[in-house]
Write a structure and sequence with these properties.
mainly alpha
Length: 169
Amino acid sequence: MFAVRDDEAALDIVQDSMMRLAEKYGDRPPEELPLLFQRILQNATRDYFRRTKVRSFWTTLFSSMAPESAESDNADFDPLETLEAQEGSKQAESAYDEVARAQVMALIQEEIEKLPARQREAFLLRYWEELDVAETAQAMGCSEGSVKTHCSRATHALALAMKAKGISL
């Protein structure tokens, strides 16, 4: 999600990566799978950016050729948006709660982006990807002590930044 900045695209990339891992590397020992998955995920993310660039080029090219009379006032109408949201779902939460949550998540993402690259990598692998210290160290090509140091520094920096902004997590 941090790489592509689109929740739906990120979910698609992860799902495609899991499918490739299962199809091509299902016979590998379980301890090799997390690192293989990380490599497949990185390659899938690069492929996403390549496809997006090409798609954007062709969309721009063809949209400039389309006649303006083809546009419709109801082109953006989505009948699914008119359905009532189920209680407890994200759609049912109040606008205030949704905006507050989005603002806090944006601040957290902003602070994660400010971390030095190695701290950010260690933090995301450990806490977002839920790899253990040894797997993270292997993925990053460093010692387990370095992973612990990077993670500690990252969590302290994030905690201080959030506290400075008046957010307690």
